[in-house]
Structure formats: structure tokens, C-alpha cells
Write a structure and sequence with these properties.
This protein is of the alpha+beta class. The chain contains 31 helices and 18 strands. A five-stranded antiparallel sheet has the order 1-2-3-4-5. The longest helix has 26 residues.
């Protein structure tokens, strides 16, 4: 049977209703099944599946196909992956793929074992004896000490300390319980080729090596304890096939004596200039690297101690492993049907997120992300999030990834950037806060436009024309990398506006950025941060009472207090009216007098005290602030005079601001301290990087927002008192009208 005939048979035998039914609720409709189309949102079902023909069709959006096309289009599988999945479901084997000669190696025939006395010491024996045995009596006067033996061993391998072999340093023997590789036998029946075979598959060898490392992990309690201490469960360790490379220099050669050529092709065994072979990965936890089909193609090793450098080593490129084409965790993410994709820095980040239920995290192979890798991930989801550490190295990596990813941002594709709070990485954050918190962080990751503005203004503060010119120059170069379209122009205009070169000025845009910089901030909490940053806005206590200076200033500027001022009495002169029984009088004069009298009466009535509304003091901090904000205001006004001690002329403006803030925080309860400190660092950083030290306008806007919210609540309680309700509405209208005018004036 031809290959095409076998593929046709697999598709014909696939249960298309079962495959699509995993994602769509299908109901029988005659000889077909119908449901809402999974490819476009709809409320009325227009998606039909015909099990006899093995086809599906949507009359709404026009998509159509068979089981193979559904797996490709909906589950984002390649044609090869989709065929393999259908082959697994139907039980019909796919045609064997032709063997690529570059993916094979020649096995070495097994040599007769030499006598025990002449045998080379195994890797688990005392390593200090091995170099000493190569020395004659004329070379050394006496047998070297253990320290000398270690030094000789180091010298023997100094000549192959290359960039590809960063871990050629000697690891002291006996530090960990090293399992004997000589006793390893589970792979005797795993080889596909006999000793007489001329070649064998590199993929088969990699599978056997992976199982070898897994076996070594089972024998090494220290390595097991390390992984469990990192929070990994036995199920996760098994799912990611984690292993352990023993401490010996030649454990792979002893376990796979016929496969030396294959080990060298894979870069797992290296040869020194002196002709000695040695294993690349030693005394390290092993992370098998899989391709998108789940085949092991390489390995990464991590030290068991953070003091050893480098922490990670990847096996080198080989005929089956190309670092720039592989993403660690891609296979596991697609297997888990991940919808959102997140690029992280480390293998442990990938594994910890996956274990917590946050699927779709991937990491590069210790190299910068490639454009092809970003394009691949954007095929799965048009939004891709890049999460890098907040240190300088992490931010440089994020910037490089952004530059590489720009050409991949065709219409509808988005890059978002995530830096986790409190110096967390994804591994530590998900362990500390859980799956839902991590998913929320990913959802709130900043878009490319905000990331560009933040990064550029951090590098070039916008307080000088020269720096603004540099920003525009760099921005122009970056947006030229984008595909043709309007996105580049929109990015440039957005950042120009934020710098004050467009319709809005810089201060206003800085406020907009601050008002939205942290979605967890309420207006009350935001005001607390503002008063930490600029406490002098609050003034001092007035006669041992909270000063209302900020609110009083708003009333004076908005003239809202005029709502409560009584109308002046009528000054219209009136002549006395004397009417006798024979006189009709002047009708107009009489009507005027009556009108004036009624007006004065109504004015007095409107200005009379309201039983439900205190018109004398307007709004106060006690009325608009919650308990925590009120405590902070009281504390700041109490210690206002002591804050002047921090006005050291030798300190910069922002050093003084930060010092005052921490002095204020020291006087609060631990609960309020923890809540504010969580946000203070980022708030302070956002302002200082933009060279902003006066946020009085931002405070005004936030206070007015609280005043308006308070007045709206009061209106709901004053429905029974029409006069009080009328005053409250006028009060609200006066402040709202002033706020609109004030904001418009600032923008102009």
C-alpha cells in the first residue's frame, strides 16, 4: 500500500465527532451533528459535522475540512503531529520515515576486556589514583597526596577549557554519593542494533542516555533531595524526565562503550588535546531537551550548588539539536493544550509554572531568542508575553528579545512584557502566590508601547531636548523593523504625545501612566503613595486637628463652597403702599412688592439648616478617606516638622524623598507597612525615572475623584430630604464642572 493510501485510510477511520466533540458541544441533527463554531464566536449553531463523510463545515465563517485539518487549525498541530495523533487514535501505523544518514553513527565493536590489574579505574573509584598511575617512579619521588592528585587531574584537563566546555573544572570526589555506572544494566535490551550493525540512530542513543540519567537520579539521594527541595513533585520529575549525571569523568563511556562515536557527535563526550575523553555533564541535575515531537535531542545540566559556576551547561549543537530552533517546554506546553504562551529565562521557571497549572511557559537554550522562535509562538496565540528578571541582565535580554521580535509583529500580533514584583522570578512567584496570581500577572503584562516608553525614558530622561531627540531617533530605528502597516506610526505618535511633543504634555501623560501603572491600586491606596512621595502637601495639624488644606484649596479653586453661601437680601427699594377703600392702587407696584416678599421668604427657607446635610464644613478628610488613608494623613501631619530634618543639601531630591518615605513608614502598623512597601518601590521608580518631583496635580485629581464619589453616595441617602438633595447635587455639579475645565486647561 502506498504512503498516500495509508494516510487516506487513517483519516477515513478517524472519529471526527469524537475529535471535535472534545472542544465543541455537538448535538445530533438528522444524519449530522451541529454546534457553535469553535473558529468564530456565535450564539446560533451553524457548525455541522458529518460522520459518514468525515467532514465539518461552518455556514457562518466558511471553515471546512476533515479530522486532519481540524487538528492542524484548532489545536495548532503541524501536519506531521496531526497525522501521528490520528495514527495513535486509529491504531493504523504511519509509513516509516526514511532514515537521515546524518542522524546515525557507527557503533564500535566490543573489545575483549583486559585483565583486572590492567583495567582503567571506573569513574566511581577514587579519582586521585587515576592520574598518579600514569606517572613512573622517575616522574615522582613518592605517590602524590590526594591534594596533589587533584591538582594533577586539573592540569591534565586545563587544556580543553573552551567556551563550549565551561564546566571542565574538577569536582572533588566523595562529596556526593555517586551511583556506580558499572552496575547499570537496564539498557542492555534497549539497543536497536546488535554489535555487528554498522550504524545506529542518534535519537535512539539519546533516549537511552536519558533513561541512564533517570536511573542515576534514582540512585542518588542528594540529587533527589535537591529537586524535592526546589518544590518539584515526583510526578513532575517523571513528566519532564529529569535525571542526574554522576560525578565521574567517563561514566557515559563506561555505560555505552559501543557508542563513543555517537556520544562525541552529540557533544556529550569531549576529547582533550592530550587525547583523553571526558564527559561534558558531571555531578549535575539533568534536563532532557525535547523537540516538538517529544524526542530527546539534547541535555542541560544544573549544578547542585549555587556557588558553582556556570550553573547551567547545555549540550552543544549536533545533527539533531540546533539551539536556535528549540524552545524548552514547547512539547510539554502543547501536550497540555496551552493557550497563552510565556517566554521565561530558566528551565526551573518552565517546570514550576507547568506544575502549578500555568501551561505554555518556554525557555531558550541559553541563547537569545530568535525571530523564528517568536514567530512560531505567535502562530499559537497572537499575543506573546516575555518575562525577564528585573536586574540589568534580565532587562537587556528583554530588550534584545523585543528587537528580534519586531519583524514578527504583523497585523494583530502583540508582544507584552512582564517583570514580576519584589524581585521574583516565575519559579519563586508561582510558589509564593499560586496559579491564579501568576495568571493575573500575565494578563496585566504591559504592551510593547508602554514598555518602549518606559525603557527609553529610563535611559534618556525627558527633561532635556537632547534626550528627547535621542528617544525619537532610537524609536524611528526600532519602528523601521516592523512590517509595513500603521503600527509603527501609531507607536511613534503615542510616545511623542507622552513626551509632550503631541497634543498632551509630559506631566499629564506621566499622571495617566501613574494612575494606571498598577491595577491593584485603589484611589485610597494611590493617595497614600502620593503622600509618601510628597508629604509636605498635607501641611501640619491645625489646633491639634487634621488640616484640611488640600480639600480647602480645591474648594477655593472650584468655588464649590459658594453653593452653601446664603443669597444676599433684596436691596430693591419699595415705597410704602397705602390703599383706601376708594382706590384701586397701582397693580404693577403691588405685584412687584409681592414678588420681592416671596423671593425673600423662599431665600430664607433655602438657606435654613438642612436636617440631613452639614452645609457649614463642606467635605473633609474624615468624610472621603478610608481608615488607612486617614491614619497616614494624621501621622504625616503629626511629624511634619521632623521631616524637615531630611532636607540635607548633600542629598539629591530623590534621596530626600525616599528617606522621608521610609521614616513615615516606620511609624505605621506592620500591616499597613507591608501593604505600602509592596507598591512603593515601583511608584517611586516610575516618578524618579521621569524626573518628576511635584505630583500636586495628581493629588488634586485623586482627591477630587474621592470627593465626587462621596457626594454620589450621599445623594442616595438624601432622597427623603429634597432641599438637602438639591444642595448635594449642586455641590457635585460645581466640582465636576471645575474639574473638566481644569483638565482641559492643563491639556491645552
Amino acid at each position: 500500500m502506498s504512503n498516500n493510501a495509508i494516510i487516506d485510510q487513517i483519516i477515513a477511520n478517524a472519529d471526527i465527532v469524537k475529535i471535535i466533540g472534545k472542544h465543541v458541544e455537538l448535538k445530533r441533527s438528522g444524519n449530522e451533528f451541529k454546534g457553535c463554531c469553535p473558529f468564530h464566536g456565535e450564539k446560533t449553531p451553524s457548525f455541522f459535522v458529518n460522520p459518514q463523510k468525515g467532514l465539518y463545515n461552518c455556514f457562518g465563517c466558511g471553515v471546512a475540512g476533515n479530522a486532519l485539518t481540524f487538528l492542524k487549525e484548532y489545536e495548532n498541530l503541524t501536519a506531521g503531529e496531526a497525522l501521528k495523533e490520528l495514527s495513535r487514535q486509529t491504531g493504523i501505523e504511519l509509513p516509516k520515515e526514511p532514515v537521515n544518514k546524518s542522524h546515525t553513527y557507527k557503533k564500535t565493536p566490543i573489545q575483549p576486556k583486559p585483565a583486572v590489574a590492567q583495567a582503567r579505574p571506573s569513574s566511581h573509584q577514587n579519582l586521585a589514583q587515576s592520574p598518579a598511575q600514569t606517572l613512573s617512579d622517575s616522574d615522582v619521588a613518592e605517590r602524590p597526596s590526594i591534594a596533589n592528585a587533584e591538582a594533577l587531574w586539573i592540569d591534565a584537563f586545563d587544556d580543553f577549557q573552551t567556551s563550549d566546555n565551561l564546566d571542565a573544572s574538577f569536582i572533588p570526589f566523595g562529596e556526593y554519593d555517586d551511583a556506580s555506572v558499572g552496575g547499570f544494566s537496564p539498557f542492555d535490551d534497549l539497543t536497536n542494533s546488535s554489535p555487528q550493525d554498522s550504524s545506529s540512530s542518534l535519537y535512539d542513543l539519546l533516549t537511552q542516555i536519558c533513561q541512564f540519567y533517570q536511573h542515576q537520579l534514582q540512585q542518588n539521594s542528594f540529587a533527589q533531595h535537591y529537586l524535592l527541595k526546589r518544590g518539584l513533585t515526583p510526578h513532575t520529575i517523571e513528566e519532564f524526565a529529569l535525571g542526574f549525571a554522576p560525578n565521574g569523568w567517563q561514566h557515559l563511556e563506561e555505560a555505552f562503550p559501543q557508542d563513543i562515536e555517537g556520544l562525541k557527535i552529540l557533544g556529550l563526550v569531549r576529547t582533550s588535546q592530550n587525547g583523553r575523553d571526558f564527559d561534558l555533564l558531571r555531578n549535575r541535575v539533568i534536563f532532557p531537551i525535547r523537540d516538538q515531537q517529544g524526542r530527546v535531542i539534547g541535555f542541560a545540566g544544573r549544578t547542585l550548588s549555587d556557588d558553582e559556576q556556570p550553573k547551567y551547561i547545555n549540550s552543544s549543537d549536533s545533527p539533531v539539536f540546533h539551539k536556535q530552533a528549540v524552545l524548552y517546554g514547547l512539547f510539554e506546553g502543547r501536550k497540555a493544550k496551552a493557550k497563552d504562551w510565556l517566554v521565561v529565562e530558566g528551565y526551573m521557571d518552565v517546570i514550576s509554572l507547568h506544575q502549578a497549572g500555568v501551561y505554555g511557559a518556554v525557555a531558550s537554550m541559553g541563547t537569545a531568542l530568535a525571530q523564528s522562535q517568536i514567530e512560531r509562538l505567535l502562530q499559537f496565540n497572537p499575543r506573546l508575553t516575555l518575562s525577564f528578571d528585573g536586574d540589568s541582565a534580565g532587562q537587556k535580554a528583554a530588550w534584545r528579545a523585543m528587537e528580534v521580535g519586531l519583524p514578527a509583529l504583523t497585523d494583530g500580533k502583540e508582544l507584552h512584557f512582564l517583570t514580576l514584583p519584589d524581585n521574583h522570578d516565575p519559579d519563586s512567584y508561582v510558589k509564593a502566590h499560586g496559579m491564579l496570581a501568576m495568571q493575573q500577572q500575565i494578563a496585566q503584562a504591559v504592551p510593547l508601547s508602554a514598555y518602549l516608553y518606559s525603557s527609553l525614558t529610563r535611559q534618556y530622561p525627558t527633561n532635556t531636548p537632547e534626550n528627547r531627540s535621542k528617544i525619537l531617533q532610537q524609536l524611528s530605528a526600532l519602528t523601521q523593523k516592523l512590517p509595513k502597516g500603521s503600527y509603527g506610526w501609531l507607536l511613534r505618535e503615542d510616545i511623542k504625545n507622552k513626551m509632550g511633543l503631541g497634543r498632551k504634555n509630559q506631566a499629564r501623560q506621566a499622571q495617566d501612566a501613574l494612575l494606571n501603572f498598577d491595577s491593584e491600586l485603589t484611589v485610597q491606596l494611590h493617595l497614600q503613595l502620593c503622600f509618601l512621595f510628597q508629604p509636605e502637601l498635607l501641611g501640619s495639624l491645625e489646633n491639634n486637628r487634621i488640616s484640611q488644606s488640600v480639600i480647602r484649596d480645591i474648594y477655593q479653586r472650584s468655588e464649590a463652597a459658594n453653593v452653601f453661601k446664603p443669597r444676599p437680601p433684596s436691596t430693591k427699594p419699595t415705597a410704602p403702599i397705602r390703599l383706601d377703600e376708594n382706590s384701586t392702587g397701582d397693580t404693577d407696584v403691588i405685584n412687584g412688592v409681592i414678588t420681592d416678599v416671596l423671593t425673600d421668604v423662599l431665600t430664607d427657607a433655602m438657606n435654613a439648616p438642612c436636617k440631613n446635610y452639614d452645609e457649614s464644613c463642606c467635605l473633609t478628610w474624615q468624610a472621603i478617606a478610608d481608615e488607612e488613608l486617614l491614619k497616614l494623613i494624621t501621622w504625616i501631619q503629626t511629624i511634619q516638622s521632623r521631616l524637615q530634618d531630611f532636607d540635607n543639601p548633600n542629598w539629591s531630591t530623590y534621596e530626600r524623598i525616599n528617606a522621608k518615605a521610609h521614616f513615615i513608614l516606620a511609624g505605621l502598623t506592620s500591616e499597613q507597612q507591608n501593604k505600602l512597601i509592596k507598591h512603593w518601590a515601583r511608584f517611586f521608580k516610575e516618578l524618579s525615572q521621569r524626573n518628576i518631583d511635584d505630583i500636586s496635580d495628581l493629588v488634586t485629581e485623586l482627591v477630587v475623584q474621592l470627593m465626587l464619589e462621596t457626594l454620589q453616595r450621599e445623594q442616595k441617602t438624601l432622597k427623603a430630604d429634597l432641599k438637602a438633595l438639591s444642595l448635594c447635587i449642586k455641590h457635585h455639579q460645581a466640582i465636576s464642572t471645575w474639574l473638566r475645565t481644569w483638565l482641559q486647561r492643563k491639556e491645552d
